[in-house]
Amino acid sequence: MVTAHGDDDPVTLPFFVYGTLRPGEHNHDLFLRGRTESEEPARLRDAVLYEGPGYPYAVEEPGAGPVCGELVTALPEAYGELLGALDRLEEYVPGDPGNLYERVALHVTRGDGAAVRAWVYVAAPAVAARLRARGTLIGGGDWHARR
Questions:
Q1: Do residues 4 and 94 make contact, with C-beta atoms less than 8 angstroms apart?
Q2: How many structural domains are present in the chain?
Q3: I need a labelling partner for 21 at 20 to 30 A (CA). Which of 56, 69, 81, 131 fits?
Q4: Strand, helix or coil at 16?
């Protein structure tokens, strides 16, 4: 796994979104409209979803999953701005022990079966531990289908 810790010039990867950034959710238009080259269905293996206060958390869990979402490729000219905006949205600061999310590079599977590395915001270790102990699991790993 490649983390963003200490990266001044992070690797350019697509993003895997599974919650409020998915099409039809409230943050999609606010953050992604006009900044993406493509968006396609994808799945994240070895992870589960937990309910958060109005948004989900993906928690890495070997052998579990998949988590359903979209693989989002940013327009090259919008990449840096989008990366910064998403880090701020997720309140992610590299190396901050108070993070709710960590941005990590994981393999996701596209609809055609190809594996692609992508940035994924997963629950930070302390948050993941709390969720495993007393969180509400989202069955089926699909934020859209929870309703």
A1: yes
A2: 1
A3: 131
A4: strand
Phi and psi, residue 128, nearest 5°: -60, -40
The CATH number linked to 57 is 3.10.490.10
What does the DSSP 8-state code read for residue 137?
B
User: How far apart, in whole angstroms, are the C-alpha atoms of residue 123 and residue 102?
Assistant: 6
Contact between 16 and 118 under an 8 Å Cβ cutoff? The reply is yes
The residues, ordered by sequence, that sit 6+ positions from 90 with a Cβ below 8 Å of its Cβ are: 100, 101, 103, 121
As a whole number, the mean pLDDT across the chain is 91
Q: Which residue has the higher pLDDT, 4 or 50?
A: 50
User: Rounded to 5 degrees, what are φ and ψ at 62?
Assistant: -50, 135
Please provide the DSSP assignment of 48-80 as one string: EEEE-SSSEEEEE-TT--PEEEEEEEEPGGGHH
What pLDDT digit, counting tens, does each position of 26-37 carry? 999 999 999 999
Q: Provide the residue range defining the domain that includes 129.
A: 2-146
